[in-house]
Specification:
This protein has four helices and four strands, in the order βαβαββαα. By secondary structure, the protein is α+β, with helices and mostly antiparallel strands.
Length: 87
């Protein structure tokens, strides 16, 4: 199974949407709250090449983008492949 990381904030609807999709698929993930954990915002900005919006999602260290990007991968049938699952 792939390693999934997601940078979030507490009141972000898009973050909730992305986490809900991952939960429906039974995917475990590491969550980093950029509004609650000092240093996480700078870490996210560096890893996401300056993208400031949350969520920022990484699968096996690769930047996937945000919630809409995650949803698009799922709609196209590519998310399971990235997660290391058979399509």
């Amino acid at each position: 199974m792939a390693e999934v990381e997601i940078y979030t904030t507490a009141l972000c609807g898009y973050c909730q949407r992305a986490k809900a999709l991952l939960a429906r698929k039974g995917v475990a993930y590491a969550e980093y709250a950029v509004d609650a954990e000092p240093g996480r915002l700078d870490e996210m900005l560096k890893r996401a090449k300056g993208r400031r919006t949350v969520p920022q999602i990484f699968i096996d260290g690769k930047a996937i983008g945000g919630s809409d990007d995650l949803q698009a991968l799922e709609a196209k049938g590519h998310l399971d492949t990235l997660l290391g699952r058979a399509p």
